[in-house]
């Protein structure tokens, strides 16, 4: 779809960029101004952002009617204490992401994560941390992902869920990294199955709290 947002349409932005060490980082920012050439967003931050501009970033725009995602250029990072301004090139198009509300549950399910880089595929046998019909978080020993997307297989209640996933964010842990993904390609039947499992788990937890 064509980029035609107004300020009042947007709740906030998420910007996925690479820091000075080449690792992915995300920020959640408010929008200050939009025109045909630039999006100016800002956050409060008490130290410099460890990143260089210009660079290509993934921009997520969170609106009341859903989430939109695209690639664009981070033109510059400017400082005016206590604010940091991210100056982005206004993209030409956006991809709409489904805005259905899904339950997320904590759960340790067996899974296999496949990531391909330079035609070499790495395979990680691991477990999920949490899951919903929108996405999943897993634990892996090193931070590895492909901007083009990766593959995952999840053993969920004796059913194997196969999906393509897109990196969202990561968190360093003692045992490795907690990495969160959204599904970029999953069958409707598998998405509905995950949703039913999550709803059932939520209901069981509520009964446990009320008993």
Helix segment tally? 1
Briefly note the CATH topology name of the largest domain: Thrombin, subunit H
Oligomer description: single chain
CATH level 4 superfamily of the largest domain? predicted glycosyltransferase like domains
> What's the CATH class label of the largest domain?
Mainly Beta
Share in β-strands: over 45%
Coarse structural class: mainly beta
Examine the secondary-structure arrangement and name the CATH architecture of the largest domain: Beta Barrel
Question: Helix and strand succession?
Answer: EEEEEEEEEEEEEEH
Spatial extent as radius of gyration = 19 Å
Overall structural domain count: 2
Shape: globular
Low-confidence stretches: none
Overall pLDDT confidence: 85
Head-to-tail CA distance between termini: 49 Å
Q: Tell me the strand order in the biggest sheet.
A: 1-2-3-6-5-4
| Tally of strands | 14
Helix percentage: 10-25%
How would you sum up the major sheet?
6 strands, antiparallel, barrel
What's the helix and strand layout?
Layout: E1 10-18, E2 24-34, E3 38-44, E4 55-63, E5 66-80, E6 83-89, E7 95-97, E8 105-106, E9 110-117, E10 120-131, E11 135-140, E12 150-156, E13 159-173, E14 176-185, H1 188-210
Antiparallel strand pairs: 1-2, 1-4, 2-3, 3-6, 4-5, 5-6, 5-7, 8-10, 9-10, 9-12, 10-11, 11-14, 12-13, 13-14
């Amino acid at each position: 779809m064509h980029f035609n947002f107004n300020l009042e349409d947007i709740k906030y932005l998420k910007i996925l960029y690479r820091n000075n060490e080449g690792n992915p980082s995300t920020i959640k920012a408010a929008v200050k101004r939009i025109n045909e050439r630039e999006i100016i967003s800002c956050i409060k931050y008490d130290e410099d952002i460890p990143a260089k501009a210009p660079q290509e970033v993934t921009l997520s725009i969170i609106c009341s009617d859903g989430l939109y995602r695209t690639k664009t250029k981070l033109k510059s990072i400017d400082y005016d204490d206590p604010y940091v301004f991210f100056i982005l090139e206004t993209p030409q198009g956006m991809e709409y992401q489904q805005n259905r509300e899904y339950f997320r549950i904590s759960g340790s399910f067996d899974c296999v994560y496949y990531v391909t880089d330079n035609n070499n595929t790495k395979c990680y046998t691991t477990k999920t941390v949490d899951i919903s019909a929108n996405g999943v978080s897993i634990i892996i020993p090193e931070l590895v992902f492909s901007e083009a997307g990766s593959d995952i297989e999840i053993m969920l209640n004796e059913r194997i869920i196969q999906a393509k996933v897109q990196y969202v964010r990561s968190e360093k842990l003692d045992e490795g990294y907690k990495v969160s993904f959204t599904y970029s390609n999953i069958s409707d039947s598998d998405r509905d199955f995950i949703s039913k499992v999550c709803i059932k788990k939520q209901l069981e937890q509520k009964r446990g709290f009320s008993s």
